[in-house]
Amino acid sequence: MKIDLLQMVENGGCSAKIPPRQLEEILKYLPLPEDPNILVDIDTHDDAGVYKVNDELALVLTTDFFPPVCSDPYEFGQIAAANSISDVYAMGGTPVVALNILMFPAARLPMEAYAEILKGGSDMASEAGLRIIGGHTIDDFPPKYGLAVVGYIHPEKIITNAGARPGDSLILTKPIGTGTILAGQRLNMADRKDIDEALRLMKLLNKSGAEVMKKYDIKGATDVTGFGLAGHILKMARASKVSVRINMKKVPLIGNAYKLIDEGCIPGAAFRNLEYAETDTLFAPDLDYNLKMLAYDAQTSGGLIISVPHDLEKKIIAELKDAGLEDSSVIGYVTEPAGKLVHLDN
Ligand code: CO
Ligand code: CO
Ligand code: CO
């Protein structure tokens, strides 16, 4: 029997996240513990929490899990793991150990699918040099998978949402459009070539991007996932107390993502993300509607957004390309606070 996990879900990957506005409502009720060793917590909406062990070592802790983004169980395991590990890379950390988190409908799927998901996760973890040392399983439908990851970082070398500085350029390391392409796949509107490219990109670890960031002593970065490119940039602008201008024409897109949006294939998550970001964003009057919706397209295992000193921009782009991130591009820049937090231009 050929297993097709996509048959089981409506919203796969990071588009299954709780809408950002609702999440902020809920988080208001979560008390923030006071402890001088907590270096990063949810206050800045960073990708992971950071806890200082001593002057040389802090732990980066993060978890992510979601329903299937693709048909094949092994590939789903790979993508979910790459996505979970990404939050450690986004902060400049080194992933060390992890636990599996798996919800699996034992009565509705053959056990081999179960094993394949875990195998995909384990192979991706090995690629990252990460050891999976345990986990937890619940019988649940639809299936969900991800990791809880612990990484190491030097307490003074943490890269956060709050580290973007006026004058910096913003670099994006992977093209966007995975949410749109996956929605197009469901509607039989997407090309096989684009689906394969989206799968390849979701399986691509942000490891090489993180290595380049560490080499250049970068202070501000995040990864692009469920809240979309402009949603994550908004969180970065807010935490850094700056404004950001994004030129949507410079944002690399996967294959025919633009055409799919133009044909009306706009995932619901994009509207939810737009609704969240709207009040803090200034849209250029002539902003192309399709590019606007792509700016809020929920990404699964997306690339890094890196805030780099302007004079290093060319050098860093060249290094990212050498490291296999051939679509890396400067997509905008950071300014002093200027009215709205984010300006979306053509
Ligand atoms: Co993240
Ligand atoms: Co995350
Ligand atoms: Co347990």
Keywords:
13 strands; Phosphoribosyl-aminoimidazole Synthetase, Chain A, domain 2; 60s Ribosomal Protein L30, Chain: A; 346 residues; binds cobalt (II) ion; six-stranded mixed beta sheet; seven-stranded mixed beta sheet; alpha+beta; 2 domains
Describe the protein's architecture and organization:
The protein is an alpha+beta fold and 346 residues long. The protein folds into two domains: 5-153, 2-Layer Sandwich (60s Ribosomal Protein L30, Chain: A), CATH 3.30.1330.10; 169-345, Phosphoribosyl-aminoimidazole Synthetase, Chain A, domain 2. Helix content is 34%, strand content 22%. β4, α3 (111-127) and β5 form a beta-alpha-beta unit. α2 (73-90) runs parallel beside α3. The longest helix is centred in the N-terminal third of the chain and has 18 residues, at 73-90. The relative contact order is 0.18. The model has no long low-confidence stretch (mean pLDDT 95). The structure holds cobalt (II) ion (3 copies). One cobalt (II) ion binds at residues 47, 87, 90, 223, 225.
